[in-house]
Design brief:
51% helix; 3 helices; mainly alpha; single chain
Amino acid sequence: MLQQDDLLTQKIELLLEMNSKKLLAEIAKLHQEVADVREEVAAFKKQQRSEPAPQPPWQQQQTPPRQEYDDYQRSRAPEPPQGWQPRNDERPEPQEQRPANKPIDRNGVAPADVNIEKMFYFGNKKR
């Protein structure tokens, strides 16, 4: 039985040693990849400092966008006929106001017959 326990412990130690060597190799590989990425980033930064960045397409245009929009609006707007001028009588006439004593609702109640103070009475005022 002692021999089986020794074999079992040796087997466990061997498995642990193999796993730890495997993990150490993976960690070393990751360290190397991180170092490579750092070198690439440093090279990109150095290159970016030496060369100006290209402008995006919307900034390469010679006319500003607002000017293009204004030109577009002017091209769409219809031009008035030659010699046309607005007249004062072309304005819509204001509607005739009804007198306060004529009914305006479906019940035939005129505005003069409605006492607003009675509708919105909130206190103990004597009348």
